[in-house]
Each structure stands twice: as structure tokens, then as C-alpha cells.
Design a protein that fits this description.
- The complex is a heterodimer of chains A (about 350) and B (about 280).
- With about 350 residues, chain A is an alpha+beta fold.
- Chain A has helices at about 10-15, 100-110, 120-125, 175-185, 195-210, 225-230, 235-240, 245-250, 295-315, 325-330, 335-345; strands at about 5, 25-30, 35-40, 65-70, 85, 90-95, 130-135, 160-165, 170-175, 190, 255-265, 265-275.
- In chain A, strands 3-2-6-7-8-9-1-10 form an 8-stranded mixed sheet.
- In chain A, strand 8 (about 160-165) and strand 9 form a beta hairpin.
- The longest helix of chain A has 20 residues, at about 295-315.
- Chain B has 8 helices and 15 strands.
- In chain B, the strands form 3 sheets. In chain B, strands 10-9-8-7-11-12-15 form a 7-stranded mixed sheet, with helices on both faces. A 6-stranded antiparallel sheet of chain B has the order 4-3-6-1-2-5.
- Chain B folds into 2 domains: about 10-100, Translation factors (Elongation Factor Tu (Ef-tu), domain 3, Beta Barrel); about 105-240, Rossmann fold (3-Layer(aba) Sandwich), CATH 3.40.50.
- Chain B has helices at about 35-40, 80-85, 105-110, 125-135, 160-170, 195-200, 215-230, 270-275, and strands at about 10-15, 25-30, 45-50, 55-60, 70-75, 95-100, 115-120, 145-150, 175-180, 190, 210-215, 235-240, 255, 260, 265-270.
- Chain B is globular and about 50 Å long.
- The relative contact order of chain B is 0.14.
- Classes of the chains: A alpha+beta (about 350), B alpha/beta (about 280).
- The interface between A and B is large, with 52 and 47 residues.
């Protein structure tokens, strides 16, 4: 696999040179936050950032996406017949994605791509995406990737990994997709032993900077119904205002709604991100609602991430440790504390 | 890649108003592309999304039996946006069906056994599918005694009245039709709630499986009756309802614990449900 060294200026130029092959997304400072934007002449990629405010989830799984289209014009021969929409699946690359956010796509994958059903839109966009990660030299205080199967230089879900060595990037291809990407990337020079060693040391040092350790080892052994009835849920939910920000910022939250929208005689079937924090999410036509209370919805979010997902997929927890929900929760609910509560829960019979 | 969200286009072939309040209608659909009928190969107990352009989709149990060829039927209660629109549609109108979805009643396990069917209100649809399926000459010998307890609020609220009358005449199925109450002096069947009639008519659980479909209150009170007769939770089969969108276990809303009602259900045994969080 290719290993190269670029000065930072060379790397930015090299990305611009890929414009005809890939649609390149890079972190850009916008207002107070970093966000992933398509690279063009006016955009200045800023790879000196902690992480983007929003995860790059939407680049594979848009917040709103047209599924189908149709005409309601009764004079048309295909009136009321729902049809697939044309979509653009030309290659794209997310450059500068943090390892936690790349890992998140791996966590989400079995929901959209499993032996029984395949979500064509998620899969096609995922497959057309090259994930070019940037290791985290300096993880933040809310980062806990090392507790949930990741790490600041984890290669999970990445095709290429960048090491920030100060004035240069060490760039390593990790998959065939990554190899293809680097073949098309101009410039740089072969990485020498010194650079590779510097990369290794950087990675080891970064992992040590994450002091928070969240235990998840006993979640698998819990009995679902017992954990469901644990006494702490009222306390956990007490401060929650069901704003849903955690679910929108979360790179591993995948729930969605399907809605029809009509303008004149033309209509679209659209899917939008949805949230288990909202009572409408589960409201039956009859008026019955299995999760009508706040505590039920809050419990659902954490049970899904740390128990249902664990039991269903045997693929770890449904959390990549990015810490966005911890940083942005308006009432300071800390997912790490709740994971600990769940992991440490002992039923009265135990 | 097959798109699991794309409905098959269908034409409404026939509409039957089932109940006196006109709130329940049966819709018979014919596939616009005949080859789609084969792709829509289903087993009694499954459901499908009825899909109306401009309105959305609604998950509804399949009321026809796979032994009835040439069409597929659904009985729909008028409740929300999609079902209200459907109730205003006419024969000949074009819409979509997406499915079949979900699992089915445990037909393999039911072979060679007595089958007890208990239904209430408009939840009788997949039970109708099951009865038609079992009574089909090719299938009848696979099952022993078939007993049915079916109740509605009053005689005018019973579904499939012609078929009920026909089944009453047959000697290979024991029908126990009941209503909560009626002022009809000519009413010749039972009067009483479904759990009460079940207690009177279903007296043995020997070699039997019970399928129960109905409103939550009916299920709640029928369950102890069946357990008293001797049905173990493994042989009490229930079909659940949930708000659904995708129908294929992806959109996240219809879960009970780590099970999705749309994909892992809607059919669960009581034994399974006892090991799941009571969130339905």
C-alpha cells in the first residue's frame, strides 16, 4: 500500500488537482464552527481543527433525500405511479474525516445493508465514497473513542489515513479504494522510515491523551427486560427537554421518516432524519403511543445504543465516542455516565 | 439492487363497504404488471404498505389468502391521512402496494394441530386470510379441528358477513361469532365479550395452537383465559401493530427491545413477548 509524504501546501494543491475525478469534501471554518463543504476555488480547507460541529453523516445519508417522484396529473399515462428518481453517484471523497466519524459508518452499515434488505441509496453513496481520515493528534476532553472500539488513529472505516506531522502529512493508503485515490493524487514523495516512525509515535501518544475510560464490557450480559426496568431511568431523563439535538448530531443515529410532498401536480416521496426523542415518532393512528412519556423516549435512545444494538449485531455499541452529544446537550446529559450506569447495573436478584 | 421501498403499481378492482358505520372497507387490488403478482408472494399473517402518491404509506395486514389468485385484498379502517384518502378512492384508481412484509403465523408448527383463532373488531383481516388458507382443499387435511371466536361491538360491525354465514354452515370449522351487545331480535349467535365466549367455547388446549388478534384490551383479558385452559405461552400467538414507515427494519420506530415489529414480527408468541420489554 502506498505511503507518501506531502507538505501541507502540496496536499491542498493535490486535492484541487483531483477535482475532475472526485467531488472532494473538506472541513471549512464557517461562522463559529467547522463543517464539511465541497472543495472549490473559494473554499479554504482547514485541517487544523478538533472536529466538525455536524458529523459528515449527511454526505452518505442526507438529512432530506428524495426517494421517488410521481405525477398526479390524471391525463398523464403514468399518473399516481411511484418511480425512482435519477441520482448522482459519481465518486466523492471526504478528506479530513476523523476516525470516530469513519467508524460510525461501520456501525451504521448493518442497519442499511443486511442479508434481508439493502437500502439502495445508502449503499450506493457509501460505495461511491472514499474516506480519507485525519488522525487526532490532540483529542478533546469529551472524546472517548478508545472506549468504544476506536482510537484517535483508528483505521476502521477509512480508506486513507493522514498523520499531521507538523509541516507535512504522512498519507497512508489502507484499502484498494484508498490506493486508487492516492494513485490519482499528484505530488508528494515516498514516505521514509523516519516519517513512518514519527507517525507511529504520534498515534501512540494521542491514544494516551484520552483519559476517560467508559466501561462497556458487561452490557452484553445484561437481561434486556431487567435493564429496561432499571431504577435510574427517571433520573437520567429528568433534565432532558427532548430537543433531539443529540440524535441529529450523532454520527450513528440513523432513524428516518418518510413523507410525501406535492407541488402542483408533481410529487416527491422524501425521507428525512427523524428522532426517537419526539412523541410523533411512535404515535399510532389510534392515538395509542408506546413511547408517549419522555422517560420512555430517553430510555429508548440509550437502550438502543448500548443494549439493543449490542444484542442484535454483536458489533460493539452504537456509539463511536465522538462526544458531540456531550458537548452540545443543552442540559448536560453525558452519554458516558449513562453507559457506565447501564454497564454497572445489577438486578436485585444478582 | 432491488429497491425495497418501491411499491408495485396496482389498480383498485373492487371496493366493499364492510361495516354499517362505513369506516371499514375492503379493497381488492389487481397488479398493473401481471408479473408483479408472483413477486408479491405472501403467507397468511404478513402485511404490506399501501402506498398512495401524494399522501404516503400505511401498513395493513393482508386479508386475502395466497390460495385466492388474481388479486390481493386489504380491509382498511379509516383513521389517518392515507386511509382517509383511500376511503375516498374509486374502483379503477391506481396506487401502490409494497411488500409482502414481516413474518407470518407459524404454519409449520400448526400442522397436525388443532387451531384456535380468536379475533376482535377489525383485527380479523389476517385471520380471514388464515381461515381461507386452511379451509382450502389442498390444505385442510394438514390441520385438525379449527375453532374460531370472532367478536365485534354489534352485528353491523362484523367483517366478511357473507363468509361468516358460509363458515357457520360448514362442519369442518367451529364458528363462535359474538357481539358485545345488540338490540336485534333476530341475532342468532352469541352475545358477550370475546374473553367470556372464549372461556365458554374453548375448553381444551390439547395439541392446540391459539392465534389471537384484536384490540389490546381484548388481548389482555383473553390471555389469562387461554392460560387457564392450559395453553402454554409458546402456543399463544399474537400479531402486533406499531407505527411504521419503512417496513423493513431500518427507520427505527417500531422496535420492542431489539426486535422490529415490521421485520421480526408482526407475529410473536406470548413466550417471546414475555422476554421483551413491555413497550407496545
Amino acid at each position: 500500500m502506498t505511503k507518501k509524504i506531502y507538505t501541507k501546501e502540496e496536499w491542498t494543491e493535490a486535492l484541487k488537482g483531483l477535482a475532475n475525478t472526485y467531488k472532494i469534501f473538506v472541513p471549512v471554518m464557517e461562522g463559529d464552527f467547522h463543517t464539511f463543504k465541497a472543495l472549490d476555488e473559494k473554499k479554504i480547507p482547514d485541517l487544523d481543527f478538533k472536529n466538525t460541529q455536524l458529523s459528515p453523516k449527511s454526505l452518505v445519508y442526507p438529512q432530506s433525500e428524495r426517494m421517488f417522484e410521481y405525477t398526479l396529473d390524471e391525463n398523464a399515462p403514468d399518473a399516481n405511479i411511484i418511480k425512482e428518481s435519477e441520482k448522482d453517484y459519481s465518486p466523492q471523497a471526504i478528506v479530513g474525516i476523523r476516525p470516530c466519524d469513519a467508524h460510525a459508518f461501520q456501525i451504521v452499515k448493518p442497519n442499511f445493508d443486511n442479508p434481508e434488505y439493502q437500502d439502495p441509496w445508502w449503499i450506493k453513496r457509501y460505495e461511491s465514497t472514499t474516506f480519507v481520515g485525519l488522525g487526532c493528534n490532540d483529542p478533546g476532553p469529551t472524546c472517548f473513542c478508545t472506549s468504544v472500539g476506536g482510537g484517535p488513529f483508528s483505521e476502521k472505516g477509512l480508506d486513507v489515513l493522514l498523520y499531521d506531522l507538523g509541516d507535512t502529512f504522512l498519507v497512508k493508503a489502507l484499502t484498494d479504494k484508498g490506493e486508487t485515490f492516492l494513485k490519482k493524487t499528484q505530488g508528494g514523495k515516498e514516505a521514509d522510515e523516519k516519517a513512518l516512525k514519527a507517525g507511529e509515535e504520534l498515534a501512540a501518544g494521542a491514544a494516551d491523551k484520552i483519559e476517560v475510560k467508559v466501561q462497556t464490557d458487561r452490557l452484553k450480559d445484561k437481561v434486556q427486560t431487567e435493564l429496561f426496568d432499571a431504577p435510574f431511568w427517571d433520573d437520567v431523563a429528568f433534565a432532558c427537554i427532548n430537543c433531539g439535538i443529540c440524535t441529529y448530531l450523532c454520527p450513528t443515529c440513523w432513524c428516518f421518516d418518510i413523507q410525501d410532498e406535492v407541488l402542483g401536480k408533481q410529487g416527491d416521496r422524501i425521507r428525512n432524519w427523524d428522532s426517537c426523542m419526539f412523541p410523533l415518532f411512535t404515535l399510532h393512528g389510534s392515538g395509542h403511543n408506546p413511547r408517549s412519556k419522555k422517560v420512555q423516549r430517553v430510555r429508548q435512545r440509550f437502550m438502543h445504543k448500548f443494549k439493543y444494538y449490542v444484542d442484535k449485531y454483536n458489533n460493539g455499541v452504537q456509539c463511536s465516542g465522538c462526544g458531540r452529544c456531550v458537548r452540545n446537550c443543552p442540559v448536560n446529559i453525558d452519554i458516558r455516565e449513562i453507559c457506565e450506569l447501564m454497564n454497572g447495573f445489577l438486578h436485585e436478584n444478582q | 439492487m432491488k429497491n425495497p421501498y418501491l411499491p408495485y403499481p396496482v389498480r383498485i378492482d373492487k371496493i366493499i363497504t364492510e361495516t354499517e358505520d362505513r369506516n371499514l372497507k375492503t379493497f381488492r387490488f389487481v397488479f398493473l404488471n401481471p408479473e408483479d403478482e408472483e413477486k408479491f408472494s405472501y403467507i397468511p399473517g404478513q402485511f404490506a404498505e399501501l402506498s398512495i402518491a401524494g399522501k404516503g404509506e400505511s401498513p395493513i395486514g393482508i386479508a386475502s389468502s395466497p390460495t385466492e389468485k388474481g388479486h390481493v385484498t386489504f380491509t382498511v379502517n379509516k383513521v389517518g391521512l392515507v386511509t382517509t384518502r383511500l376511503h375516498n378512492m374509486k374502483e379503477g384508481d391506481v396506487m401502490g402496494i409494497r411488500g409482502p412484509l414481516g413474518n407470518w403465523y407459524p404454519w409449520k408448527e400448526m400442522e397436525g394441530k388443532n387451531v384456535v383463532i380468536i379475533g376482535g373488531g377489525f383485527a380479523f383481516t389476517t385471520l380471514r386470510s388464515s381461515i381461507i388458507y386452511m379451509l382450502h382443499p389442498e390444505n385442510r387435511s394438514r390441520f385438525k379441528d379449527i375453532s374460531v371466536v370472532y367478536g365485534a361491538r354489534n352485528p353491523g360491525m362484523l367483517l366478511y358477513k357473507d363468509e361468516l354465514a358460509e363458515w357457520e354452515q360448514r362442519d369442518d370449522i367451529h364458528m363462535h361469532i359474538t357481539v358485545d351487545g345488540t338490540d336485534d331480535p333476530d341475532w342468532k349467535y352469541n352475545i358477550g365479550f370475546v374473553p367470556t365466549i372464549t372461556e365458554q367455547k374453548i375448553t381444551s388446549a390439547d395439541n392446540a395452537i391459539a392465534i389471537v388478534c384484536g384490540p389490546p384490551i381484548m388481548i389482555k383479558f383473553t390471555q389469562p383465559v387461554l392460560e387457564k385452559v392450559g395453553f402454554p405461552p409458546e402456543r399463544i400467538i399474537l400479531s402486533l401493530e406499531m407505527r411504521m414507515k419503512c417496513g423493513i427494519g431500518m427507520c427505527g420506530r417500531c422496535n420492542i427491545g431489539d426486535k422490529y415489529v415490521c421485520k421480526d414480527g408482526p407475529v410473536f408468541s406470548l413466550a417471546q413477548l414475555k422476554n421483551m420489554p413491555p413497550e407496545y
